[in-house]
Amino acid sequence: MYVLMEAASGGKFPIYFVAVYVIGFIAAVGIGSIAWYNSKRPAGWENAQRPDYVPDMKSKENSQDSNS
């Protein structure tokens, strides 16, 4: 709370402090989105198509089926 009050009162708030949180949030959302799109589809999303920008990752189950 003190940090926020200091920033609001015109004190020097370190930009790198905010940058770490912003970059971390963006990375978490990006990685989470890829993981969600590659997971099994929830009910009602079985026929939904995967966006082109999400890489197709093969699971161990799929790779064993293709080797047979």
Describe the structure.
This protein has 68 residues and is mainly α. The longest helix is centred in the middle third of the chain and has 24 residues, at 15-38. The mean pLDDT is 76. The chain has helices spanning 2-8, 15-38, 60-67. 57% of the residues lie in helices and 0% in strands. The N and C termini lie far apart (59 Å). It has one domain.
The gist of it:
With 68 residues, the chain is mostly helical.
Q: Which radius of gyration do the C-alpha atoms yield? A: 21 Å
> Structural class of the secondary structure composition?
mainly alpha
Number of strands: 0
* Whole-number count of domains: 1
User: Would you list the SSEs in sequence order as H and E?
Assistant: HHH
| Unreliable sequence segments | none
Range of helix content: 55-70%
Arithmetic mean pLDDT: 76
Oligomer type: single chain
Calculate the terminal CA-CA distance, rounded to whole Å.
59 Å
The major pleated sheet works out as: none
Report strand %: under 5%
State the helix count: 3
**Anisotropy-based shape:** elongated
Key traits:
mainly alpha; 0% strand; 68 residues
Secondary-structure blueprint:
Elements: H1 2-8, H2 15-38, H3 60-67
